Amino acid sequence: MASSATLLLLSPAPDPGTFLVLKDLYGPALRDVLKKLSSSTTERPGKKILEVALPCYHLYGTENLSRSILYPKTQKLVAGLYKLICVIAAQESINVEDAEGIDARVLLIAHPGTDSPQISQVSQEMEGPVISLSTLALSGRQWHTIYSVDTELGEEVLKIFLDANISFSNVHKLRSGAVPSSGNKPSGIQNLALHPVRTHYSLAVGGTFDHLHIGHKLLLTMFVFALDKAPSSGEEPERSLTVGITGDALLKNKKFAEFLESWERRRESTHDFMSSILDFRPPGDRDVKTEETSDPGPNGHVVKVTFPSKLHIRYVEIWDPFGPTITDESITALIISAETRSGGKAVNDKRLEKGWPPLEVLEVDVLDPEDANNESQSDQETVETSFQNKLSSTGIRRAQSEKANPRPAQIP
User: What residue spans carry the Polar residues bias annotation (predicted)?
Assistant: First the structure.
């Protein structure tokens, strides 16, 4: 299926980045873009990718800081932005959950304040998920339209982006929401440094990842974010991301199982998303190696992807709730949704039984429709149901079932 891409350059993230502040600041621009893309989807069917660049002052000049220090603040911003996208889509009846809809992806930008010194290492970094505006501009990605926000700070972001690559011509301005009283001024990182420091070069995440939706995207974004950069001096550690994906046989009793995606399809969708937030090298510079092995026993089916930076992603077919977390001692952290907290405890109990150190468990927020006051429809309950279905693989399969088997019209 054909696809096309749009880029939305937001103004710098506010501080504090609560959902209500994000809604006031970014809501109008996001609503305009989603409605435009939804209309174009009706006119020209096909996958529509929306990349949303989120400039963050707190990520600039922090290459040597452990990601665990930056994790809480970054997670709140990413979760709030994905929630806002889902809220607007529910209110406006916009499809953001399947291949015929809009595939929204949040990109994290390390953005300097006006008084910050320029740091050359940032602009040269081609591996995400944290990149500079110049890296994004020079990535070779093809956007048919670029949107920016019509404010002073929005103009600043656009200028940096266009200064790096003046070839972009189809640029449009969007209205902004209310700028917070702080004026989006950058906040220092000194308070963040009080967070207990742990460095992680091998992390794990697990799930079904069926019909990849916004909840999955939040989880995978923070999973990739939590991996620390290799130190600038000394021996370079091996960096790996292990993604446990539930095997097909364990899913046969799921609701609407006939619409479940195969393990390979789920792996491909997961890798496509992770690559989109990790790999910003121009197409001609890409040299990614893929190796598949199928050994007997649990966790034996693995697809290993190696990037030029020597980062490894291991996609493992899992047959139990634990996967590689209890067979690979080198893993040091597990990323979970807050609603699966008990699973993280069960993993650590198993590791302690084996005499292994427990994993640091990092959580992402559960996205819910709280604070999502309806602005476009009279039926708030309908909006909340739509919101939940956009974050549920079961809800997406149900919708596909209803589309494939429509009920006959009732005769009055």
Answer: 374-395
